[in-house]
Amino acid sequence: xxxxxxxxxxxxxxxxxxxxxxxxxxxxxxxxxxxxxxxxxxxxxxxxxxxxxxxxxxxxxxxxxxxxxxxxxxxxxxxxxxxxxxxxxxxxxxxxxxxxxxxxxxxxxxxxxxxxxxxxxxxxxxxxxxxxxxxx
Length: 136
What we know:
74% of the residues lie in helices and 0% in strands.
């Protein structure tokens, strides 16, 4: 399930209205409504943590693995990074969920993604100012 579905499910289980949840978490009821409609997603993990606390659940349950990646990308790289990660995760999830790929092909895709990540990381080292380079 997606964030919007998990949020709605937990809110209803807690017998809270959108307005009540909004007051507990310090956001507007319109924000809660947009979250549940799927037109907006939280941009900071602190907001998700407040929602999770109010609903007696975890951030991981509300966001799921994909949502956690998107929020993390937003915090580290802004809205463009979040959109890019969201699109990539959606495409990859669709590819794997389609059931038309053999396990060996899925493993190959994951290996290629992993290799691309590490190559990009290595390539970008030369563009990182020395004051930001961590010493091992």
